[in-house]
Design a protein that fits this description.
This protein is α/β, with parallel strands linked by helices and about 220 residues long. The protein contains 5 helices and 6 strands; from the N terminus they run βαβαβααβαββ. InterPro entries: His_Pase_superF_clade-1 (IPR013078), His_PPase_superfam (IPR029033), PGM_Phosphatase (IPR050275). This is Histidine phosphatase family protein.
Length: about 220
């Protein structure tokens, strides 16, 4: 008899970031009040599920999103560095719609190859570490369900890999909004389906939803 194991990969909630910094892996960025509400909403959404393992990226915003989920199920919260945000050379800077970043000559060398990409952690490296993290969560919850809390780009990249799409893409079209769930169902050790839900969609600012038109001054830290 085969085991069916479900791994929900959650993107963290909204972050308090008044300066519009692309914070990447920087410490000290916590959920906003709205982000905390999003985390509670996800915990409510998963309250009746058969969750036996909860693990998150070590970054504060991910752990704060995972905490109410673990609490609802009486579980300790584990961390896995493989779930961390993608590395990015623009970390700590503003880089978004209308800020002139693409016109600065010092940035051009980082924008030469969108297929790798040249500005950050290679997509294939993200696939390898994220698949390792998902497999570890699957093994920890075998026959039940696990939750992994991570970040937009690594989640989208591993989903694209599993669904056999190209890894380079338009960041504005990622289907991975704040506090969303990308759900991988395993039969034994093989992924047999991928699902996507947005339990906190009504809490997400309209300009941050997938496919939304960029708004000047509001999209500096997308992809986190």
């Amino acid at each position: 008899m085969s085991d069916i194991t479900v791994v929900h990969v959650v993107r963290h909630g909204e972050v308090a970031n008044p300066d519009g910094i692309l914070y990447g892996r920087l410490p000290g960025y916590h959920l906003s009040e709205l982000g905390l509400r999003m985390a509670e909403r996800v915990a409510e959404h998963l309250a009746a599920r058969d969750i036996t393992h909860v693990v998150s990226s070590p970054l504060e915003r991910a752990r704060e999103t995972a905490a109410p989920i673990a609490e609802r199920h009486g579980l300790d919260l584990a961390t896995d560095r493989r779930l961390i945000e993608a590395g990015n050379v623009f970390q700590g800077k503003t880089f978004g719609v209308g800020d002139g970043a693409l016109r600065r000559p010092e940035n051009w060398k980082h924008l030469l190859n969108p297929f790798r990409p040249s500005w950050g952690e290679p997509y294939l490296e993200q696939v390898v570490r994220m698949m390792g993290a998902l497999d570890a969560a699957k093994d920890a919850a075998r026959g039940h369900e696990a939750v992994c809390v991570s970040h937009q780009l690594p989640i989208w990249i591993v989903r694209s890999y599993v669904e056999r799409r190209r890894l380079w893409h338009d960041p504005r079209k990622r289907q991975c909004t704040l506090a969303s769930l990308t759900t991988f169902t395993y039969q034994d050790d093989k992924i047999v389906s991928v699902g996507y839900t947005e339990p906190a969609r009504d809490l997400v600012p309209a300009h941050l939803l997938a496919g939304a038109k960029p708004v000047k001054g509001k999209d500096k830290a997308f992809g986190a």
